[in-house]
Amino acid sequence: MKLERIYTPGLAQVAYIIGDEDAGVAALIDPRRDVQEYIDRASAAGLTITQIYETHVHADFVSGAPELARATGATVYASRIGESEFPHQPLDDGDVIALGNLRITALWTPGHTPEHMAFLLTDPASDAPGYLFSGDMLFVGEIGRPDLLGAEHTDDLLAQLHTSVFERLTPLDDAIIVYPGHGAGSSCGRTIGDADSTTIGQEKRFNYAFRPRNLAEFREAIMANMPPAPAYYPTMKRVNKVGATPLAGVPASRALAADEVAGLIAGGALAIDTRPAEAFGGAHIPGALFAGLGTDLVNWAGWYAPYDRDVVLVLEHDEQFAEVRTELARIGIDRVAGYLAGGMTSWETSGRDIATLAQISTLQLEELLRKHEAIVIDARSLAEWQEGHIDGALHRFAGQIVTGDVDIPAAGPVAIICGSGYRSSVAASVLLQQGWQDVINVPGGMDGWRAAGLPTTTDSAASAAGIAKEEEVLA
Question: Running DSSP on this structure, what letter comes out for residue 194?
Fold first, then answer.
């Protein structure tokens, strides 16, 4: 038997190839949209992909199930309850599918979504209890969040999640190895562990969700400090139910001269700047939003994902275009007109306006605070904030700054800080686009603040103190 884990950074998403090497056949569980890697890996192992399994209708990335089916002729298996509109074989709880001599059993495990299924892989020729591909229902040390379909569905999904944990998973053999659909960093769970796999026994023993409790207590444990979900998730749900546009049908992109980029922006296109945060701060196209290339790009571009308008990219190096284009396609951002050929150098030499984002060190920030000359916005998650923050800072999560779901004091200057300077650059770029003037980024973030030996507090009254500081600045 072959079992291979294929991890996609940024999305922290995991797909799996499972195969019967004697029969020469393989199945793919939860593929992403760009599928050639899976085909190549299966081929290298002498396997033909004949089956594709979807654990649920994904919210955080474009499913590659339809794309892979078109490329290989494989059958897609998905929950009947999901009512997917692309060609597939509907599955019901308890259905068993043969993959060569292996057996795959569908287990209905609702709660993260109503249709969610886990897949139990067993080998009749082996005494091993099997492998559970748990999708987004069970992670290492965590459980799938039940709030992604909206507040109106959360209570029903919590009840289903409670049933799945105690009536579907708890009775399983402790020795079953669990392979989840995400690793640490995914927003599909609150605090996902970073191990590649776990066991049913480990989760029964150590996962807080498996501690016996009534539904009300379960709800409190699951939903405490749940971070906001990225803004693009509802769009992904709609795309994945229907099936994404084939990659071959996505509009072509190309290198663009500065004149062309300026014309596109004037016509409503959004410039996304993927250079390092320091480069963005030094000079960028007015109105551009920051999402630096790396594991965070796809997550933060998703917070302001412009599905209804064209995108032009500003790169550090032109050769990065294919990588960025692929990253954006994974969350369905297909309207990429192209990239600014020659990067910011070509924009600057064209004589067009540039914008900047002021940068200060943590020591300079501390001086501003002592003089009551700045308001500090902490753009980290609530959990990070509660572990320690600057006395007097205001907590405003970066994602909610992007979506406009929080108020920012209308006084300046406003200094934005996060863990290292990435999320604060994202948030600051949004404020600049909205017309804010006195916006300051703090590169190094709270890591730099602590490294400088500066104090933090966990006082829950700090936000109120921050409001008092705001009033001093306004005065």
Answer: -
What is the value of pTM for the model shown? 0.93
- Within 10 A of 290 (CB to CB), how many other CB atoms are there? 31
Q: Decide: 144 and 111 in contact? Cβ < 8 Å.
A: yes
In angstroms and rounded to an integer, the radius of gyration of the C-alpha atoms of the chain is 24
What separation in angstroms does the CA of 111 have from each of 120, 130, 159, 217?
18, 23, 7, 16
**Cross-strand pairs, 290:** 273
Residue 29 and residue 31: Cα distance in Å, rounded? 6
465-to-443, 469, 471 alpha-carbon distances in Å: 24, 6, 10
- 243/230 Cα distance (integer angstroms): 21
Backbone angle region of 184, left / alpha / beta, with phi > 0 → left and psi within -120 to 50 → alpha: beta
All domains of the chain in start order, with CATH? 2-234 (3.60.15.10), 250-349 (3.40.250.10), 358-474 (3.40.250.10)
3 state SS of 116 = coil
CB of 71 closer than 8 Å to CB of 48: no
Rounded to the nearest angstrom, the gap between the alpha carbon of residue 230 and the centroid of all alpha carbons in its chain is 7
Model confidence pLDDT, tens digit, residues 405-441: 999 887 779 999 999 999 999 999 999 999 998 999 9
* β-bridge pairing 25-29 and 96-99: unpaired
- Compute φ and ψ for 144, nearest 5 degrees: -65, 140
Please give the sequence-ordered ranges of beta strands (E in DSSP) within 57-115, or none if there are none. Answer: 75-79, 89-91, 96-99, 102-108
